[in-house]
Amino acid sequence: MPIKILGIESSCDETSAAVISDSTVLSNIITNQDVHEKYGGVVPELASRAHQVNIIPVVDMALKKAGINKKYLDAIAYTRGPGLLGSLLVGGSFAKSLSLSLNIPLIEVNHMQAHILAHFIEDNCDVKTDFPFLGVNISGGHTQIVYCRNYFDMEIIGETLDDSIGEAFDKCGKMLGLKYPAGPKINKLANEGNENKFNFSKPKVDGLNFSFSGLKTNFKRFLEKNLKNDKFFIEKEINNLCASLQLTITEILFEKVKIAAKQKKILNIVFGGGVSANTKIRGIFKNENNLKLYFPKLEYTTDNAAMIAIVGYLKFKDNLFSELNLESKARYSI
After folding, report:
1. 291 and 309 in one domain?
2. Does residue 324 lie within any of the structural domains?
3. Looking at the structure, do residues 290 and 307 belong to the same domain, yes or no?
4. Cα 106 from chain centroid?
5. C-alpha 333 chain-centroid distance
6. Residue 27's CATH number
7. Looking at residues 17-40, what average pLDDT do you find?
8. What is the C-alpha to C-alpha distance for residues 179 and 162, in angstroms, rounded to an integer?
9. Which of 118, 122, 153, 40 is nearest to 306 (CA)?
């Protein structure tokens, strides 16, 4: 009989529930929280309150769309961390309660592992890579290069020392007057711009680590300087600014991943996280013929419960179950 897992994701500002049968996704429901847009970023207290409102209807919708009665579930998988603690507690408490009431196993999931292991969802990639491979997590909260020996033996070999790649997009976008989240808007505007019009600094960081705060500062000073001479500078050059900024951020990522692949002698690269939806990032990597690249479908790039459920399925097969007294963890390393 196929193993049926309910996945619950509530690490930040998306409330999501999904049902899978083995590795096949039957439903993947995501509810976004528009309340954060006017604040220019996620407000933790508002996020946790919204999760409390959304969690029951989202889970109910996922079960109905999957055509599965909850009594036929084999386990509940949920995001233990990392993320906003208040948000994590809502999803974790609900998952524990449902697991207890149904008398079925509970499975805790590391959010960052899930972004990488989403690769193994049946319809996510036509061809699956073998281990070992490099996982590249690029999102609003993280930038990581991960050496993956098997499903649950992962080692971070490079990460950001300050802002994540998603923060770089969002914070620079805010300087341009773009609403949160700015990353997708920059991507869209960049398509109409000249990416070679402006040059921005690339911070020099040893090893495989990243830094984006210096780029953010350089971008801010560049705007301030040009706005003194022309108060309409951003309005006139918005497309070119977005294109040039996007190219710089993409090249910073590209150069580090290429070094990591060479050092580890690994050609298979699996991407995960919301920023992996960026068309420039996808394009520049696909032009590197030496690497074998695996980008997720757009629906699996954002925070979603299907990626939590697939990890639940992989752990279920190995009887890797969790205790009810496990605490949610805002910081939770791979």
Report:
1. no
2. no
3. no
4. 23
5. 15
6. 3.30.420.40
7. 83
8. 22
9. 118
